[in-house]
Amino acid sequence: MPSTERPTVTGSSALAVCHWLGEHGLDVQALAGLAGINVAALDQQDSRVELTAFNTLLQLAAKSLQNPALGLHLGAWTDSSRMGVIGHIVFNNRTLQQGLEQYQRLSELVNEGVRVSFEVGPEVSVVSYECPDHQFYSALNIERMVSQAVTRARRFVSEKLFLREVGFAHERLAPQEEYDAVFDCPVLFGQGRTFIAFESAFLTFELPQRNPFLHQALTRHVEALLKKLQSRRKLSLQVRKILEKNLSRAVDVVQIADQLAMSRQTLYRKLKQEGVSFQELVEEVRQEKAMAYLNAGRYSLSEIAFLLGFSEQSAFSRAFKRWTGKSPAQFRK
């Protein structure tokens, strides 16, 4: 996946993480603000969060809690009331195999940056997780996804679900006993891909809590959402790419519209159809670039203000505090 496609995750995934972090004593608003996530917007139907922001939230939380097993713990938390639409669809199929086939097809709705594949073998079947663009790879997020898949399968399919093996593309993050507690099988690290291997006999298990009417209704909604997701942001991506190259100059919407061979009004209208405004794109690009420049540590605050197209450093500082709740100097410390 090209890096310019800005992959996202479901808002429900981010909301569930925020809820767990709040229950464990963290200041969710502050952490989410530093990651560039608006918690209030996560309650909106079909909301999405940029994957880079979601991964940053996990990193900040793991550091705050000093918990390298955070991904495993998040995934092992089974609050069915906070399970997203895709989870409900998967576990309302007739058999486990049908559920996994649908999970493979709909997984990009859950996380656009991770590709899920499903292979059926005569004795052992495998669910794999791969990140085509490594810049979006987060070991914490991968461990959360795998732990969640196994925990939910045991909860909604069978407690006796036996795993042959679990493998991770990254090296071990936490003590071995943390992985043993979740997977109860051999766990490998530094593999070519992340995978869950289990006995194929489980594929014919009929899911005990299935509801065919709920499955049909949810699938109809998700199919429309999938179509929308696949076609969305085509224009906004072009606008973002132009902004990224021209932030240091005054942002002129008319010039950008001219480059895209349309009027300013048409640009505004088409962006609105994609669910975003021109000013929101400017803010998003500036915030992402600001985080990158501050983390790089090579630029002074006045230089960053110039690179982002602010007329003066104070304007940049005000904007950054609005985004994160902290001044640039506080964030850098």
Blueprint (SSEs and pairs):
Elements: E1 8-10, H1 11-23, H2 28-35, E2 48-50, H3 51-65, H4 70-75, H5 85-90, H6 96-110, E3 115-119, E4 124-130, H7 139-156, E5 163-167, H8 176-183, E6 187-188, E7 194-199, H9 212-231, H10 234-246, H11 253-259, H12 264-273, H13 278-296, H14 301-307, H15 313-324, H16 328-332
Parallel strand pairs: 5-6
Antiparallel strand pairs: 1-2, 3-4, 4-7, 5-7
CATH class of the largest domain: Alpha Beta
C-alpha Rg (nearest Å):
21 Å
Structural class, by secondary structure, is: alpha+beta
| CATH topology call of the largest domain | H-NOX domain
Helical content, roughly? 40-55%
The poorly predicted ranges are none
Distance between the termini: 33 Å
Number of strands: 7
Number of helices: 16
CATH architecture of the largest domain: Alpha-Beta Complex
How are the strands of the largest sheet arranged?
3-4-7-5-6
Shape: globular
Task: Please state roughly what percent of the residues sit in beta strands, choosing from under 5%, 5-15%, 15-25%, 25-35%, 35-45% or over 45%.
Answer: 5-15%
What sequence of helices (H) and strands (E) makes up the elements? Answer: EHHEHHHHEEHEHEEHHHHHHHH
Mean pLDDT: 87
